[in-house]
Automatic annotation (TrEMBL):
Keyword Protease: yes
Lineage summary: Bacteria, Pseudomonadati, Bacteroidota, Sphingobacteriia, Sphingobacteriales
UniProt protein name: C40 family peptidase
Record InterPro entries: NLP_P60_dom, Papain-like_cys_pep_sf, Peptidase_C40, SH3-like_bac-type, SH3_16
Domain NlpC/P60: 130-259
Organism: Pedobacter boryungensis
Listed PANTHER family: MUREIN DD-ENDOPEPTIDASE MEPH-RELATED
Gene3D superfamilies found in the cross-reference section: endopeptidase domain like (from Nostoc punctiforme), SH3 Domains
Family of the protein in this entry: Belongs to the peptidase C40 family.
Domain SH3b: 1-66
Keyword Nucleotide-binding listed: no
Pfam families: NLPC_P60, SH3_16
Length: 259
């Protein structure tokens, strides 16, 4: 079996089981590399290269690539920038419209490549740089404000809490794992909320003590997070306060710093 593939469409659902009715656990974006672990006639079980996440997807949404193309990390550094108009033109002159943070494999001189297929960029790509993290992270996060909440989502038109911070970090040169509980295992602990800085991540738990939510701190008293939509709310030692609902919606567990 040819194991190495790349997502060939703007966004592809990654499902818990091999069925169109199954829960979407995440999404692949254009240019995401995957390893195929198992395959049926329509479905394949894949593991993502960028965050080792597993799920089932429709095999037709993938493009085969070589082992060499799969492992060429230095040729997968350019991404679509924080803007709406990220249009690619395929060799048949049809258009692809990509969400911010999509990978542009083997980018060179206005073109990127999926396997042997060539795509023309109608925009200037972004080379994420973590040295400018503090300068750019707030603007990046606020670009997604009012994006609707979608379980498993990773795009401007539907995103979940961990997909939101993962995408914002990717656009600023930092790689995070997929789920909030996984992300909470990394980074350095910030002892007090009063010490929180712009770009830190706050994690929240449920009644069982399991991390179920994450947001990005905009200082030590405000947070931007995906809950219903990407929104900005006040935060204190108890957690996130939603003024519309008149109550606390998420109980603060820990704050982590990644840069």
């Amino acid at each position: 079996m040819d194991n190495y593939h790349v997502c060939r469409i703007a966004v592809a659902p990654l499902r818990k089981e091999p069925s169109d009715r199954s829960e979407i656990v995440s999404q692949l974006l254009f240019g995401d590399r995957v390893k195929v672990l198992e395959k049926t006639e329509k479905w394949c079980l894949i593991k993502t290269n960028h965050d080792n996440y597993e799920g089932w997807m429709d095999y037709k949404q993938l493009q085969k690539i070589s082992n060499l193309q799969f492992t060429a990390d230095n040729d997968h550094v350019y991404v679509t920038p924080v803007q709406l108009n990220n249009t690619l033109i395929a060799s048949d002159r049809s258009a692809y419209y990509l969400s911010p943070g999509s990978t542009l494999p083997f980018y060179e001189n206005g073109f990127c490549y999926l396997g042997d297929e060539k795509f023309e960029l109608k925009f200037t790509p972004l080379l994420p740089n973590k040295t400018n993290f503090k300068v750019n992270v707030e603007k990046t996060a606020k670009f997604f404000e009012n994006s609707p909440y979608l379980w498993g989502g990773r795009t401007l038109f539907g995103i979940d809490c961990s997909g939101f911070v993962q995408t914002v970090y990717k656009l600023n040169g930092l790689q995070l794992r997929r789920d909030a509980s996984q992300q909470a295992e990394e980074g350095e602990l910030v002892d007090f909320l009063s010490s929180a800085q712009l770009g830190d991540l706050a994690f929240f738990d449920n009644e069982d003590g399991k991390i179920t939510h994450v947001g990005l701190m905009l200082g030590n008293d405000k947070i931007i997070h995906a809950a219903g939509k990407v929104r900005i709310d006040p935060i204190d030692d108890q957690g996130i306060y939603n003024a519309e609902l008149g109550r606390y919606t998420h109980k603060l567990r820990i704050i982590k710093r990644f840069i």
